Amino acid sequence: MENYKIHKKNKVKFTIKISLVGLGGCGKTSLYSVAFAETKPEDTKKLSPTILYETRRHPFLGLQVGIFDFGGQEQYRKEYMDRPDIFKGTDVLICIVDLHDPNSFDQAKEYFEGLLDIHRKNNEKPKVFLFLHKYDTESYQKELLDTNVKTAKELFSDTFKDYDFELKLTSIYQQDELAKIFRDILISSYKDLKKSVEKAESQLEEIKAKIIISDVSGNVLVHNVQGVSSGLTLRGDLRDFIDACNTVRENIFMSDSCRFTGQSEDGKGIELHIFKYIIAVFVMKSGELERESMDKLNVLLNDMRLFADLIISAHND
Question: What is the DSSP string of 22-55?
Fold first, then answer.
């Protein structure tokens, strides 16, 4: 499939290339840092503007995702717009608009149209997401915000009409929602994978246990536990535990899949299931599960085993 072609930059191979673009100060680097790098929203104020562009590697479901963060200041835009090869191979183009700065909307539109023209010249048509960003009232009036959303939707509606396009309202202060948006973007080209994740979300609501489903790199797909992740990234201690168990799976068991269990003296139990060296299902139980929950958990585990097979198939297509 097209999204799994190889992109090369500084000798690093990427299986998906995502380009983050927007004017200076729109919040591109903050979005990345909160969603992928465990940065707290309040700490993003310390981040420096991106100079020209930065490339970051992020493993996800066995893929190497390259995230290109393009600086939005005028001097950097001019420099890389004159070097269209930088944008070659972009699978997902994320255009970011600052809802707190409506005076910049026209300039952002002109910038995005220039980028689309570059992709046309490159004979490429990436999937496009428009983030109407800073959809929060941390330092902005709600009435003005809603007005700006309406204006932005009207202004940008025609810009991407010829593209596979989705619009999202985003905020770094809504970390769980932001994580889901990026998770869905990363699997957006594979409908079967997306359906499996959506099914798992509904299954977790019916099981009386705390469950986290992630990949073995610690990217959370779905969970029903408060405080276990920062953006897409699983909490450090749990991520380290999965990593250690995955090492045992690979070096000791030498199998694609395995199960780890543990129990405390007061009856609390944990299970970690690793499927096809890609998917990790972490289950925490306060005691023995009722028969109905146990049956539903077994169905979920079987579905995740099949989900891992789907991912392997997607890699091979």
Answer: ESTTSSHHHHHHHHHS---GGGGGGPPPPPSEEE
- The domain boundary, picked from 186, 214, 229, lies at 186
pLDDT at 52: 79
Place of tokens 């330092």: 139
| pLDDT reported for residue 5 | 36
Residue 172 domain boundaries: 2-186
Q: What is the pLDDT of residue 10?
A: 38
Task: Residue 67: give its domain's CATH number.
Answer: 3.40.50.300
pLDDT recorded at residue 4: 34
Residues of the chain with pLDDT under 50: 1-12
| Confidence at residue 250, expressed as pLDDT on a 0 to 100 scale | 95
Residues 6 or more apart in contact with residue 52 via CB below 8 angstroms: 70, 71, 76, 79, 80
Residue type, 185: I
What sign has the CA pseudo-torsion 154, 159, 164, 169?
negative
Two tokens, residue 132 = 């109407």
Question: Looking at residue 316, what is its pLDDT?
Answer: 73
Number of domains in the chain: 2
pLDDT of residue 8: 36
Show Cβ contacts of residue 78 under 8 Å, excluding neighbours closer than 6 positions. Answer: none
Please tell me the number of Cα atoms within 13 Å of 114 on its side-chain side. Answer: 16
